[in-house]
Amino acid sequence: MQVQKRNLIAFILLAAVLNFPHPALAAREIKIANVVWTGVTVKTELVKNILNSLGYKATSDNLSVPIVYQALDTGDADIFLGNWMPSMESIANKFFDKGTVVKYVANMEGAKYTLAAPSYVVDGGLKDFTDIAKYADKLDNKIYGIEPGNDGNMIIRSMIDTDQFGLGDFELVATSEPIMLSEVKMLSQEQKWVVFLGWSPHYMNDFIDMKYLTGSTAETFGANDGTATVYTNIHQGFDKEMPNVARLLRNYVFPISMINQISLMLHNDKQLKHAEAGMKYLKNHPEIYRGWLEGVTTADGMPALPVFEAYLKNT
């Protein structure tokens, strides 16, 4: 009888442990892959803060786009918030087709990602991709991109290598987002001609008097002149492993105006960090995070909204 009683007590204790929210389970690290573009970094830092406030352990690593997909493929990353489509098709689609990476949800629609030029250049006659080669001398045979390995750079490089639009003699200048924008700003202040990789939402659209070129094709930045949708990607099975986090990701969508305003805040205040700017925006726009947290709980099963609001109040 004593043995049966001890076994019963042990069974009850085991059941209680299994049914009680376990800190170790909540502490499983959530790994977010990031690329150092303003909008993607804002999204990454905000979701990281939200998850950590809810009792999860979320971290991020800054990677190049090809390495992001290798990490998602192997499970070294769980989440990526910067899948710009269709420009990333050549990198991402093979992993979607393989099934190791899931194009989970559109987090921002109506974005733009294509070649651009200062307004005086477009008004001067360079309006379309087919016009670029006509003004090779004025452009010093250069097109300005961002970091090496970026999908936009790869598209430009392919255009040059295949002499598409007559660009065979052009050079791709590959640096980084801040360096490229600094160079373009300097050239535009001197009224020099330049073509560069541009996108929206981003503060560059206010920082530089610019226009987007027409003439993109399905093989370049898309047949709709670079109109893009940004997706959240996850490693296969992550939504099943962490359904509560997956619900947050499904809710985690951004209006263009939000990223434009946050990126402008960052441009105007160089001391401001991406997370700080994002949290500052959320304090003034509670309807955004309330939508994100609808139906979401903390890691131990409590309603997420009051917990995050308390956290936000103290940041």
Fold-level CATH name of the largest domain: D-Maltodextrin-Binding Protein, domain 2
Mean pLDDT level: 92
Proportion of β residues?
A: 15-25%
CA-based shape = globular
CATH homologous superfamily title of the largest domain? Periplasmic binding protein-like II
- Secondary structure: number of strands: 9
In whole angstroms, the N-to-C terminal distance is 57 Å
What labels would you give this structure?
two-stranded parallel sheet; seven-stranded mixed β-sheet; D-Maltodextrin-Binding Protein, domain 2; 315 residues; single chain; 2 domains; 15 helices; 9 strands; alpha/beta; disordered N terminus; globular
Describe this structure in words.
This protein has 315 residues and is α/β, with parallel strands linked by helices. It has two domains: 28-110 and 228-313, Periplasmic binding protein-like II (D-Maltodextrin-Binding Protein, domain 2, 3-Layer(aba) Sandwich), CATH 3.40.190.10; 112-227, D-Maltodextrin-Binding Protein, domain 2 (3-Layer(aba) Sandwich). The chain is built from 15 helices and nine strands. The protein has helices at residues 2-19, 23-26, 38-53, 65-74, 89-98, 119-123, 151-161, 177-189, 204-207, 238-241, 243-251, 256-268, 274-284, 286-292, 304-313, and strands spanning 29-34, 57-62, 79-85, 101-118, 142-144, 171-173, 196-200, 210-212, 227-235. The strands form two sheets. Strands 1, 2, 3, 4, 7, 8 and 9 form a seven-stranded mixed sheet that branches. Helix 3 crosses helix 13 (274-284). The longest helix is centred in the N-terminal third of the chain and has 18 residues, at 2-19. The termini are far apart.
